[in-house]
Structure formats: C-alpha cells, structure tokens
Specification:
The structure is a single chain. The protein contains seven helices and no strands. It is mainly α and about 140 residues long. It is elongated and about 55 Å long.
C-alpha cells in the first residue's frame, strides 16, 4: 500500500496542472465571446440589471475580464493565489445574486468554480507551473 501512495503522490503536480488547465479553459471559454466582441457585453449588462447587480455595465466588464485574465493565470500558474481570490469574489457574488436558490443542476458550475478557486488559494499552483519554472532559473 505504501508503494501505491508514493506513486500517487508523485502525480500530484500533474493532477493540479490538469485541474488548472480545465478550470482556466472554462473561464476563458465563458469570457471569450465577450472579449472578442462576438457577443455584446450588453447581454450581461441587461442580466445584471435584472438581478440587481450595482453598476451593471462596469460589473459586466469586470466579471468578463476577470474571468478571462484569471483563466490565463490559472493555466500558467502565475499569480494563482491572487487570481483565485478574485475568482472567489466573482463566484460568491454570482451565487448570492443568481444561483443561491437554484437547483444543483443549474448552479453546479458556479459552485465548482468557487470550490476550485478555494483549492488553488490554499494549495497554490503545484510543482508544474511557470511560477516554479521562473524560480528555478534564478
């Protein structure tokens, strides 16, 4: 049993990398149409008005670009903890404003993104990241 644990422990860096890529990819994919202006940001603004988010246009831009930039940071592993904190704020607001009373099927993505952001905040980027590679060059 000890050999299995050692083998699994060696793969932790790859598991965290995989999680960072998947979550970062999801954040980028959700923001991409708005960043590339293939979808109008006014769609989000109008939704934010419906759910009473203050400063709906500004909040729409903040949320979209935060998700896009943090998605890139999640994938690279650079500044992961600050990016995680930003995503925690983003998804706490999303859950409280929109998903709090939704069923799990409808709100699952927001809860997962919140949970993974907490994981990254407390565990960091793992052994395979640009942050680690940058530190090894010194």
């Amino acid at each position: 049993m000890n050999k299995i644990s050692l083998y699994i422990d060696k793969g932790t860096g790859y598991a965290i990398l995989f999680l960072r890529i998947i979550i970062g990819w999801r954040l980028i994919a959700g923001a991409w149409p708005f960043v590339m202006q293939t979808k109008p940001i006014e769609e989000i603004k109008e939704f934010f008005i419906l759910v009473h988010i203050p400063f709906p246009l500004l909040s729409a831009y903040l949320s979209v670009y935060a998700q896009f930039i943090c998605g890139i940071l999640f994938i690279t592993g650079l500044w992961l903890r600050p990016a995680s904190f930003v995503m925690i704020l983003n998804f706490v607001v999303a859950i409280l404003a929109v998903h709090l009373y939704d069923g799990i099927e409808k709100s699952f993505a927001a809860w997962v993104l919140l949970a993974v952001s907490f994981f990254f905040l407390f565990n960091g980027a793992g052994k395979i990241s640009l942050k680690v590679m940058k530190g090894k060059r010194k």
